[in-house]
Amino acid sequence: MRASASTTVLERLPWPQTPALAQLHLEPRLDVKRVVQSPYTDKPFFEKRTEPARAALTEVSFGPFRLLPSQYVLLEGDKRVPLGSRALEILIVLLERRGKLVSNQELMSRVWPNIFVAPANLTVHISALRRALRDGRNGNRFIINVHGRGYSFVAPVAVVEPAESAADENRAALRG
Fold first, then answer.
1. 101 and 153 in contact (C-beta within 8 Å)?
2. CA distance 157 to 62
3. Which domains are delineated in the chain?
């Protein structure tokens, strides 16, 4: 059967037309409320990452370092340690579970939620973290690896609780 000149491209398609094709409108406006969604679930592909690890700890000191999770800062003395956000998130998770083995899978799911990444990414960020902490040098040992299973933070840690931190801030404000 030969299509006449007046038939549209959609009428000549080999599959049946669906209402979705009929409802397709190309409009010049941008709908900023739309979210890209997976065809397999109700969840969006991209969601804002939550930061549960930051809320759990207020301030943690170990060796010459001080971690301020709420500010997302690692300090050595009063100097900021240059460290990427993923490596900082790994450090926060390890400090939350200090002295215990944290599996590779748990670290990856906490640091890269809803994203598939190769296990090598974890290795790269752990390496950057160890380099920044100078782990293994001058007798410092912070993070150990249990091959194929995970990592553990093994150094002594001093944790400042939220109430203590607020009281310290108030005292500092009164002093100065």
1. no
2. 5
3. 56-175 (1.10.10.10)
